[in-house]
Structure formats: structure tokens, C-alpha cells
């Protein structure tokens, strides 16, 4: 809901309530007017105007400039008409004008519609009419004039700030949605296209001849595509998009970047209801990978469970790249009261300190997107603990409550691409 809508509703209520108050005020002062029939005629016209136009102040689209000018005309005209309707003694004694406090509603309409500048102009016109009606610079008149002027200008300024904040928030939400969708697409590209291009480059260089040229071209496209999905980061070694890297990729040079294929494709989760995480992670168990699970089902929404399984697959790929085929890995699933915790541990050499941050800065997004990005979209987290010579442990946490909304948002994003 727009931040302006409550203001327009409040203005509509103000105009209706002040009209009722003004009718009562004129009714009580009827016998004191010099020309009471003129006062009655004005109030009848004002009531008819309100009956025909009260919906104009319920939204900014209905409240046009022409309406605001006409509404202000009723207010200023009623104030000046008081000179001809009321007695001189009542006017000099500070008696209320015909529109009374209803006139402030016309000024507030300008403030909400056009900001503080419009409010300043409208309140100045009402102030001038009040001073002309009073015929002197009386203290109570000046007090009321300044009050209306300051209130309308202040409300107009607040409206401008609110509009600016609303536009900034809308832009931030658009950027966040676009960033999340870009990261999702980047993960899919990283898990498939980039790995295939890296494999073609490496195999082509090994075979030689025409295959080497094909491998070189694949390497160029890999660098360009990697730069694109990294959000404009410079490719490794400061090269330009589309240029071949100055240092060829070596097996194990990055976390899960140059694998010919994932260790095992994450099984797909069908449907939108709860899914047992154990069923998705059990296929990863094989020689060299030990899978431990609780005795009861560990349920997450289907989309969240699939993303968690894909993150585990990426972690196992990293084990094979860095620890080698002889390393052993353990997958442990824990069902906490408010989250699902999956730990992937290996007995490899560990990850050198700062290697993850360096890989992300260089545009290598295996950990940043395939693991950490997936968990972040689910409202969870991924933590690495690595000791040189003692292996690496990756702890993946997915909250049970946050995963439901995140997985639904992910499905909506995929449906819209």
C-alpha cells in the first residue's frame, strides 16, 4: 500500500467532519448574522460541493489540480463572504468565518498532492483572505494563520520525503529481486555450462591439433561467461571479457570449477509438499562417502530440499577436487527443532586460509553461488572449518520456517523466467 493512501483517507475524513462542525457552528450563529440567508445559501452550496466531490480526496488520481483550485476557491470565497454576512462587531471580536476550520482541508489537499511548495502557496492565499476579513493584524488571527501555514508546509515536506523513500524502497526491491534471479541463473550456468567449457578446454589441450584450437575457443567463452555471471568482475589475472586466460586452468585450481562432471547430480524433488531430505542425500553414499541419517524423516519443502541437496553435491565435488579420489567424505544429517543441519566432512589436506575469498574475488563462483548462494536464498547459512592436514568440514543450515517462503519465492522466480 502506498504511503500516501492513509493521508488521503485522513483528509477525506477531516473534510467530512469539519463540514459537520461548520454546519453546526453556522446554525448556532444564525440569529447573529447580519444577512443569515446568505450564510445559509453558502453552506448549502458548500454541502452540495462536498456531496459531489468527497470521493475526489480518496486517492491521488481523483484529486486533480482543477479540483484543488475549485476547493480552495470555496474556502477563500467563504472567508471573504463573511465580511458581507456577519456583523462588524462579531468580525472584530474574532468570530469564526463561514467555512471556519473546513478551509484548512483545502490547504492540506494541496500539501498532499504537490508537496510543501503547493502547500505554501495555498496557505498564503488562505492567510491573506483571513487578514482581509479581520481587517487588522489581530493576535488570534495571526496565530491561526501561522498554524495553518506551518502545518500544511510541514505535511507537504513529509509527503515529499515519504514519496522519495517509497521510490527508493521500490528500486531496492527491484534490484534485490533481479540480483536473486541473476544468482539463481548463475548457479545453473556454473553447474553445467562452465564446467563443460572447462572440460572441453582441458581435453582439447591434451589432444592437440584442431582440438587444441577448439579448446582455446572454449576457454575464451568460459572466461567471458564467467565474467558475466560474476556481475562484471574482472576475470582471473586481470584479463578482459572474451580474452583467453594468461594462465591455463589446472585441476584443483579452484573450488569445483574445472570438474568434468559433478560427483552425482542432485536428485530432483517433485511436488510442492514436504520432502524427506534423507531420500535426496542417500544416493550420494558410495565407496569413499559415508552417509549418516537419523531414524525419522527429516522434512523440508520440496524446493528447499532440492537446493540443499544441490549444495551437498557441490561440497562433495570440492572434496574430490581438493582431497583427491583417495579421500573419504562423511555426510551427517541432523534434524534440529527449528532447522535442518547437514555436515559434509573430509580427511583431505584442507583449504588454505583465504582461498575462498580469493576465489570469489577472481570470479570463481563455485562456493559463492553453488553452496553459499543457495543456502542464503533459503534463509540459511554455510560455514567452513578447515585445518591444514586435517581436512575440511562444511556445515549447511536450513531453517524450517524460512525455507518455506524462500522455496516458494524461488519457484515463482523460475516460473517467470
TrEMBL record:
<dbReference type="Pfam" id="PF07730">
    <property type="entry name" value="HisKA_3"/>
</dbReference>
<dbReference type="GO" id="GO:0016020">
    <property type="term" value="C:membrane"/>
</dbReference>
<dbReference type="InterPro" id="IPR045975">
    <property type="entry name" value="DUF5931"/>
</dbReference>
<keyword id="KW-0902">Two-component regulatory system</keyword>
<keyword id="KW-0808">Transferase</keyword>
<dbReference type="GO" id="GO:0000155">
    <property type="term" value="F:phosphorelay sensor kinase activity"/>
</dbReference>
<keyword id="KW-0812">Transmembrane</keyword>
<feature type="transmembrane region" description="Helical">
    <location>
        <begin position="36"/>
        <end position="55"/>
    </location>
</feature>
<dbReference type="GO" id="GO:0046983">
    <property type="term" value="F:protein dimerization activity"/>
</dbReference>
<feature type="transmembrane region" description="Helical">
    <location>
        <begin position="67"/>
        <end position="89"/>
    </location>
</feature>
<dbReference type="InterPro" id="IPR050482">
    <property type="entry name" value="Sensor_HK_TwoCompSys"/>
</dbReference>
<feature type="transmembrane region" description="Helical">
    <location>
        <begin position="12"/>
        <end position="30"/>
    </location>
</feature>
<feature type="domain" description="Histidine kinase/HSP90-like ATPase">
    <location>
        <begin position="303"/>
        <end position="402"/>
    </location>
</feature>
<keyword id="KW-1133">Transmembrane helix</keyword>
<dbReference type="InterPro" id="IPR036890">
    <property type="entry name" value="HATPase_C_sf"/>
</dbReference>
<feature type="transmembrane region" description="Helical">
    <location>
        <begin position="101"/>
        <end position="129"/>
    </location>
</feature>
<feature type="transmembrane region" description="Helical">
    <location>
        <begin position="141"/>
        <end position="159"/>
    </location>
</feature>
<feature type="region of interest" description="Disordered">
    <location>
        <begin position="398"/>
        <end position="417"/>
    </location>
</feature>
<dbReference type="InterPro" id="IPR003594">
    <property type="entry name" value="HATPase_dom"/>
</dbReference>
<dbReference type="Pfam" id="PF02518">
    <property type="entry name" value="HATPase_c"/>
</dbReference>
<keyword id="KW-0418">Kinase</keyword>
<dbReference type="Pfam" id="PF19354">
    <property type="entry name" value="DUF5931"/>
</dbReference>
<protein>
    <submittedName>
        <fullName>Sensor histidine kinase</fullName>
    </submittedName>
</protein>
<dbReference type="InterPro" id="IPR011712">
    <property type="entry name" value="Sig_transdc_His_kin_sub3_dim/P"/>
</dbReference>
<keyword id="KW-0472">Membrane</keyword>
Amino acid at each position: 500500500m502506498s504511503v500516501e493512501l492513509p493521508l488521503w483517507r485522513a483528509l477525506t475524513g477531516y473534510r467530512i467532519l469539519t463540514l459537520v462542525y461548520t454546519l453546526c457552528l453556522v446554525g448556532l450563529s444564525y440569529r447573529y448574522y447580519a444577512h443569515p440567508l446568505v450564510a445559509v445559501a453558502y453552506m448549502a452550496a458548500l454541502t452540495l460541493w462536498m456531496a459531489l466531490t468527497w470521493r475526489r480526496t480518496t486517492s491521488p488520481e481523483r484529486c486533480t489540480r482543477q479540483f484543488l483550485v475549485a476547493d480552495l476557491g470555496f474556502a477563500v470565497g467563504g472567508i471573504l463572504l463573511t465580511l458581507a454576512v456577519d456583523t462588524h462587531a462579531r468580525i472584530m471580536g474574532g468570530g469564526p468565518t463561514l467555512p471556519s476550520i473546513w478551509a484548512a482541508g483545502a490547504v492540506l489537499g494541496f500539501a498532499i498532492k504537490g508537496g510543501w511548495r503547493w502547500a505554501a502557496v495555498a496557505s498564503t492565499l488562505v492567510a491573506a483572505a483571513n487578514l482581509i476579513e479581520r481587517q487588522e493584524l489581530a493576535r488570534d488571527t495571526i496565530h491561526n494563520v501561522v498554524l495553518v501555514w506551518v502545518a500544511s508546509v510541514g505535511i507537504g515536506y513529509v509527503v515529499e520525503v515519504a514519496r522519495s523513500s517509497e521510490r527508493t524502497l521500490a528500486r531496492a526491491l527491484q534490484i534485490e529481486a533481479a540480483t536473486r534471479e541473476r544468482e539463481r541463473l548463475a548457479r545453473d550456468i556454473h553447474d553445467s555450462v562452465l564446467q563443460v567449457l572447462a572440460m572441453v578446454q582441458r581435453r582439447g589441450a591434451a589432444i592437440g591439433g584442431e582440438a587444441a584450437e577448439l579448446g582455446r575457443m572454449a576457454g575464451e567463452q568460459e572466461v567471458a561467461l564467467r565474467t558475466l555471471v560474476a556481475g562484471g568482475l574482472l576475470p582471473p589475472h586481470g584479463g578482459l571479457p572474451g580474452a583467453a586466460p594468461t594462465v591455463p586452468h589446472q585441476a584443483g585450481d579452484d573450488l569445483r570449477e574445472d570438474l568434468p562432471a559433478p560427483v552425482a547430480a542432485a536428485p530432483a524433488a517433485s511436488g510442492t509438499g514436504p520432502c524427506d531430505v534423507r531420500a535426496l542425500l542417500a544416493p550420494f553414499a558410495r565407496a569413499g562417502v559415508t552417509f549418516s541419517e537419523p531414524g525419522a524423516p527429516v522434512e523440508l519443502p520440496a524446493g528447499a530440499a532440492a537446493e540443499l541437496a544441490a549444495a551437498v553435491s557441490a561440497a562433495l565435488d570440492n572434496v574430490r577436487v581438493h582431497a583427491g579420489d583417495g579421500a573419504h567424505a562423511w555426510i551427517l544429517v541432523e534434524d534440529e527443532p527449528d532447522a535442518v543441519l547437514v555436515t559434509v566432512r573430509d580427511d583431505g589436506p584442507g583449504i588454505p586460509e583465504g582461498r575462498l575469498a580469493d576465489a570469489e574475488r577472481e570470479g570463481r563462483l563455485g562456493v559463492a553461488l553453488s553452496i553459499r548462494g543457495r543456502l542464503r536464498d533459503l534463509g540459511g547459512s554455510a560455514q567452513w572449518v578447515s585445518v591444514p592436514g586435517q581436512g575440511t568440514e562444511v556445515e549447511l543450515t536450513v531453517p524450517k520456517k524460512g525455507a518455506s517462503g524462500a522455496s516458494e519465492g524461488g519457484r515463482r522466480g523460475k516460473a517467470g523466467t
